Input
Amino acid sequence: MTNPTDTTDGGPTDEPTDAETVLTFMCVRNAGRSQIATAFAERERDRRGLGDRVEIRTGGTAPADSVHDVVVEALAEVGLDGNGRTPREISDESLAESDFVATMGCSTLELETVDTDDWDLDDPGERPIEAVREIRDEIERRVIAVFDERFGEFDGGR
Output
């Protein structure tokens, strides 16, 4: 399997990067929560001008065929495009290369040299849009907090 090294366009690339920090967002199916987190992380990376310093990865242990339609809808409501995103598998090697890994309430992942955090969040897959909005907004808060913690608080553009 090819390790995804950047998800800016929603797909993996084989190109190595000079990123100093690797942030990974994963869940079992990579069709909802981790895709939302990835979209917000990409936005934060761009807002803060960290494109050359932050690599964002996403994946799942048993990827779905597609991102949940309700997730695409919820992302569109906040100006983020979820249409080009595709669930993919994440390898143990890719996780071990990360500086930070957020799991979405579906893992007991423990990596010796990686900062991990399990975000206990409901799966948006079969939920109504009202519930997905709440999950989306909580994920946004958590992603911003990760960036604030690792790169300093950011007050521009919000």
Remarks:
- The longest helix spans residues 129-151.
- Residues 1-17 have pLDDT under 50 and may be disordered.
- The radius of gyration is 14 Å.
- The longest strand covers residues 21-27.
